[in-house]
Amino acid sequence: MNPKQVNQKVGKMLIYVTLIFMAIVSLLPLYWVFATSLQLPSYQNETMEEPVNYVESTPPKLYPVGVKEYFHQWQKREAAEDAGNDAQAAYHDEKMDEVVTKTFEGFVILFERTKIMKWLLNSLYISIVTTVAIVLIDTMSGYVLAKKKFPGKMIIFWAIISTMMIPEQVTLVPTFMMVQKLQLFDTHWALIFPSLALAFGVFLMRQFLLAIPDELIEAAKIDGASEWKIFWTVIVPLAKPAMAVLSIFTFVLMWNSFLWPIIVLNDENLLTLPAGLKTLQDANLASFKLLMTGATVAAIPMIVFFLLFQRYFVKGLSMGGVKQ
Fold this sequence. Notes:
Elements: H1 3-37, H2 65-82, H3 86-103, H4 105-113, H5 116-147, H6 153-162, H7 172-181, H8 189-192, H9 199-209, H10 214-222, H11 227-238, H12 240-255, H13 259-264, H14 273-282, H15 288-308, H16 310-320
Helix pairs in contact: 1-15, 2-3, 4-15, 5-9, 5-12, 5-14, 9-12, 10-11, 12-15, 12-16, 14-15
């Protein structure tokens, strides 16, 4: 093996090590949320002098102690049964049940004592409707800005791009006033209507559609296709990777939206999941474990959504970086 090949292998190894490290750092907070949601609060076994709250222990436990404790009690129960000590075996059976109960009590409390299912459905409804609207409108806008010629096109494009530089907090007051004037306050339309278009989406779709050959559109026109048919039969099929990327970004953005929902929604039955979890903290009903349980429930749909569109996401990023 010559020095050049050695350097290439070392370089690849360093890249893999760096990527693995970055992946671990990125996933550690998510893992911590999951682990904390299954952590044991206020638990005491036969070797402890007083109950221990593993949720708030210092240093924090990076794994669910309940799993280890369950198998510990199971081994002791087996040993007691082998020794013929039924009383001791029954005691360890009770401790095993206690471990399971305390491990999943956050989920039980969350689904029995709160409106988590209502908030979950609200978030799904708002996120899906907004995502579909944004993807459709931004794809149409991107198509017009990429393939049509009209006076002031670039001025309109840069005006749209410039709105991305305005902080969200600056637009809160005018958007709130608009929602009030339209009498949408304390309705789901107060979340959907102001988000029917996304400047980033227009930019993304326009840049992607620039790579589509104009000859395809011209051929469709020669065949007698209308503008609407060209859009649905030529543009949309070719733009699916970029639309999938935009769908993921939009869905995650709307799902995680927190500030705007707590401003325009007062009815607890209309709250989205992030806003609903905030009410738990305000009401002092939840411990840190319960909040992490809610965060776990909130994260699962996003993970599923990303996994479903992962193929298009990667393809969209790679194709968007190639100019044809």
